[in-house]
């Protein structure tokens, strides 16, 4: 952190916007720990509460990005909310809870379940509800909409705005999405390399961003409107002197900046794909999980219901849907990690020699698949041994901002969440799979650098089948040729990307697109 100065007024929503690794999470942790420990560099006027052992604590709450994983699997979510409120000496308000659940379109019964019975997005919603029910003076949220679809994101941001006005609660929200941050915030701090490069009222930032880094963030956002705009250099390094963005700035003087341009346009107009062979086929797939309702009663939760689809080679498919619609379960079944109750998944063979096709995947929670006792260099060495091109892993690691000479000696635990996602992506991409399944793998990656990863997919997997699952319809539209809308385990609509956006056939897809455009509405006034 360098030269950080910020003030948050009562009832104000302050946003911290920046790319992955710029220091947003570190800053929120420093602020929260500093408040708890009485750091004199922080001036606190938000009041205190008395904890269980009689200590006065600042009436503030920090909701980290990994908060959903901190829920206790032994107790229901509602029981955990009650315990937290009891520890803070706050009375439980059933009317307020029902009001919040109604505004986000969820039944209060969702909170009666244990965390493992909820999707990642639903767990995230539960943690945010827990923070809101306490009604503290300040709530700090790190990437609060990471696991949420556009509709849930819009509802949550609306609740943040209403709580700031009705209850005078102040918020600090950090994120990589300019749409989310500008939609919710009154004031925005733009962060890069541990410092604020620009701080401004939201409307001023949208209409007249001053710093080149801010302009880049505002412009380079994966969506159907930027489908032809490509970013082919990962932004991760900091200049040691002067402006930290100097190495990437298009306005820097010739003698002090790199000659590599970070932007280029790629004309994809007129591209025609020939009908390719079927690489992966799902036939009448069903999947049901049992949920325990009481001691002697179980409920059947139909997650996938009669899913059939043929995925062609050379085509990129986007699967969109709200949290809990069955997307992750479908990804696990397609990748072979989970078995359907009935139906089948059929993988094609290579026509030349009859060998099996290579199916690889990257899931949202990469930490479960990366051993913390190994270093990045260990993974690089093992992947290069099985890759069709042993040198490709090094090229891709450089492209995603993880050069071996700088990060090779680091253990998995020493990498940030975004860095782990980039490592998993590089490991899989360098194996040049015939089918690549991506289950929300870019949730911790900022939009400009996500465009870099998308360009790598286009570059190396042009003839492969890509199945990209995400709750963000703009990212899906940017990467994919075809969109499949998924809800309650079924396909509700599917078509080419352009047709989906021009003529929605179902209210479900229409609402997803509407919510996404609503979140971006303030950004559209950007010149």
Question: What does this 3D model show about the protein?
Answer:
The protein is α/β, with parallel strands linked by helices. The chain has two domains: 207 residues, P-loop containing nucleotide triphosphate hydrolases (Rossmann fold), CATH 3.40.50.300; 248 residues, P-loop containing nucleotide triphosphate hydrolases (Rossmann fold), CATH 3.40.50.300. Helix content is 33%, strand content 22%. It has 17 helices and 19 strands. The strands form five sheets. Strands 4-5-6-1-7-8 form a six-stranded mixed β-sheet, with helices on both faces. A six-stranded mixed β-sheet has the order 15-16-17-13-18-19, sandwiched between helices. Strands 12-11-14 form a three-stranded antiparallel β-sheet. Strand 11 and strand 12 form a beta hairpin. Helix 2 runs parallel beside helix 4 and helix 5 packs across helix 17. The protein is globular and about 70 Å long.
């Amino acid at each position: 952190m360098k030269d950080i100065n910020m003030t948050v007024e009562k009832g104000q929503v302050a946003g911290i916007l920046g790319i992955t690794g710029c220091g947003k999470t570190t800053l929120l942790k420093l602020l929260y720990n500093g408040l708890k420990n009485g750091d004199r560099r922080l001036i606190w006027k938000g009041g205190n509460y008395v904890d269980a052992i009689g200590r006065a604590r600042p009436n503030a709450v920090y909701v980290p990005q990994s908060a959903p994983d901190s829920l206790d699997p032994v107790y229901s979510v509602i029981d955990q909310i009650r315990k937290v409120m009891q520890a803070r000496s706050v009375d439980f308000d059933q009317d307020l809870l029902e009001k919040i659940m109604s505004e986000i379109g969820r039944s209060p019964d969702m909170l009666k379940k244990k965390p493992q019975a909820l999707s990642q997005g639903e767990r995230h919603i539960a943690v945010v509800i827990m923070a809101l029910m306490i009604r503290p003076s300040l709530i700090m949220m790190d990437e609060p909409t990471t696991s949420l679809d556009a509709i849930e994101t819009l509802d949550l941001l609306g609740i943040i705005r209403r709580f700031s006005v009705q209850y005078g609660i102040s918020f600090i929200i950090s994120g990589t999405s300019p749409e989310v941050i500008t939609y919710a915030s009154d004031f925005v701090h733009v962060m890069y390399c541990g410092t604020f490069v620009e701080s401004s009222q939201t409307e001023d930032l949208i209409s007249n961003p001053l710093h080149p880094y801010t302009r880049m963030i505002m412009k380079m956002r994966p969506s159907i409107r930027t489908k032809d705009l490509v970013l082919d250099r990962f932004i991760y390094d900091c200049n040691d002197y002067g402006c930290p963005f100097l190495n990437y700035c298009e306005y820097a003087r010739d003698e002090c900046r790199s000659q590599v341009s970070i932007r280029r346009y790629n004309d994809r107009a007129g591209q025609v794909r020939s009908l390719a062979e079927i690489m992966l086929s799902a036939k009448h797939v069903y999947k049901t999980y049992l949920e325990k309702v009481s001691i002697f009663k179980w409920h059947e939760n139909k997650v996938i219901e009669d899913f059939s689809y043929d995925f062609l080679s050379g085509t990129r498919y986007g699967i969109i849907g709200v949290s809990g619609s069955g997307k992750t379960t479908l990804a696990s079944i397609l990748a072979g990690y989970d078995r359907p109750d009935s139906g089948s998944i059929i993988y094609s063979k290579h026509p030349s020699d009859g060998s099996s096709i290579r199916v690889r995947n990257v899931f949202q929670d990469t930490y479960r698949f990366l051993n913390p006792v190994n270093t990045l260099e260990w993974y690089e060495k093992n992947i290069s041994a099985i890759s069709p091109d042993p040198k490709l892993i090094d090229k891709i690691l450089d492209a995603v901002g993880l050069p071996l000479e700088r990060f090779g000696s680091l253990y998995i635990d020493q990498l940030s969440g975004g860095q782990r996602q980039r490592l998993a992506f590089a490991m899989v991409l360098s194996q040049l799979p015939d089918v690549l399944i991506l289950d929300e793998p870019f949730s911790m990656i900022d939009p400009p650098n996500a465009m870099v990863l998308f360009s790598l997919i286009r570059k190396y997997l042009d003839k492969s089948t890509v199945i990209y699952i995400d709750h963000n319809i703009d990212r899906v539209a940017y990467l994919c040729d075809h969109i499949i809308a998924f809800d309650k385990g079924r396909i509700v609509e599917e078509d080419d990307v352009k047709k989906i956006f021009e003529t929605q056939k179902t209210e479900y897809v229409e609402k997803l697109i509407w919510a996404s455009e609503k979140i971006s509405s303030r950004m559209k006034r950007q010149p």
